[in-house]
Write a structure and sequence with these properties.
Elements lengths: L1 H17 L15 H10 L3 E6 L6 H8 L5 E5 L17 H8 L12 H19 L4 E5 L7 H10 L4 E6 L2 H15 L6 H12 L2 H4 L8 H26 L3 E5 H6 L1 H12 L7 H8 L3 H9 L1 H4 L10 H4 L2 H17 L9
Helix pairs in contact: 6-10, 7-10, 10-17
Length: 344
């Protein structure tokens, strides 16, 4: 009883001194205002960009190429907006709202300081590294496969002035690459049936390459195909809606076939002059550090695979796989000009 009375007195005192009633739970963080954006740029003036894409869609290759430019830096997977708890999750509790927007806080000008504080934290993290490298434009690449379009909205809440780049890859190849990544990096999380497929492929891959056996269970393929469609549709639609001319999409396959033209288009989009990097780009395309690492980690499993290859699905999709993917994602393939119709 005494403890309850003490707690009530403490809450009463806090209300008296802060002018706010204590509320538990989480809250929606308000978007940053344009006034706060301009203030942030006085302290952190570098132009910012973010790269989104489904996992295994070429985000890493794009990052490696982008940062060859003398003015541009990009690093990996801050997951500010793409993987929970997100940067906004750091201040989602009601107690943070009480602290950053209470009337007695003369620093907040009568507003909730949360968006400005979160923006300043991300700006500092990104610019600190870019400054050390002598760069003036800085970005982060974080696949948004977990949140899809919601990641775009999260980004826009803090960075309405930034640029968003979305890279897409043929969903059939994307799913194959993602499947093997799970086989290699996260076998401890695989269901028994998936582990059985993994072990069978490692021991005898030939039936899989002949189309006699699938690397997917039916449920896994349905789930993954639907996820690829959602990622492409939501990210592109909301990216165009919220960012307009500050949004750029490109295809991984075009980056492979027209590398310098595509990366020059990206640099131009970021406001960086694209001239004079042909040799550096050619040299970077000649290396594949991720493939070397995967071969070292799981040599037997990936020995028969060419990482980053276009059209791997033709070798590994069974007729059942084609039928399932066509039903779920066939229209999206056509929308992104991977197919002209459903006759594949």
């Amino acid at each position: 009883m005494l403890r309850k009375i003490s707690n009530r007195l403490s809450k009463t005192a806090r209300v008296f001194f802060t002018g706010r009633v204590e509320v538990s739970g989480t809250r929606a963080i308000p978007p940053i205002t344009m006034e706060e954006v301009q203030e942030a740029k006085q302290f952190f003036p570098m132009e910012k960009f973010f790269i989104f894409g489904h996992a295994r869609s070429g985000t890493t290759l794009l990052t490696r190429l982008i940062r060859l430019h003398a003015d541009v830096h990009c690093n990996y997977q801050g997951h500010f907006f793409t993987r929970p708890p997100l940067v906004s999750g750091m201040a989602a509790g009601k107690e943070f709202e009480a602290w950053l927007s209470r009337p007695s806080n003369r620093w907040n000008r009568g507003r909730d300081l949360t968006p400005a504080a979160l923006r300043a934290m991300v700006d500092f993290i990104m610019e600190r590294e870019a400054r050390q490298l002598g760069k003036s434009i800085v970005g982060d690449k974080s696949p948004n496969v977990l949140l899809n379009g919601e990641a775009v909205r999260e980004m826009h809440n803090l960075y309405p002035d930034a640029r968003l780049i979305y890279i897409i890859r043929d969903g059939r190849d994307t799913l194959i690459s993602h499947r093997f990544q799970n086989f290699i990096d996260a076998p401890q999380h695989l269901p028994k049936e998936d582990l059985r497929i993994r072990d069978q492929f490692s021991k005898d891959p030939e039936p899989f390459f002949r189309g006699e056996r699938s690397i997917f269970t039916e449920k896994a393929l349905q789930r993954m195909a639907a996820g690829w469609v959602e990622n492409a549709a939501e990210t592109d639609r909301i990216g165009r809606q919220l960012y307009g001319s500050q949004y750029l999409s490109l295809r991984y396959e075009d980056l492979l076939s027209q590398t310098y033209g595509e990366i020059s288009r990206v640099w131009d989009f970021l406001g960086a002059a694209p001239a004079g990097y042909e040799h550096a780009v050619a040299a970077e395309m000649g290396s594949n550090p991720d493939a070397a690492w995967q071969k070292q980690k799981a040599g037997d499993l990936v020995a028969n695979l060419e990482k980053g290859k276009r059209g791997s699905w033709r070798d590994l999709f069974t007729e059942r796989d084609k039928r399932i993917f066509k039903q779920i994602a066939g229209t999206t393939l056509v929308d992104w000009h991977y197919e002209q119709g459903m006759g594949w």
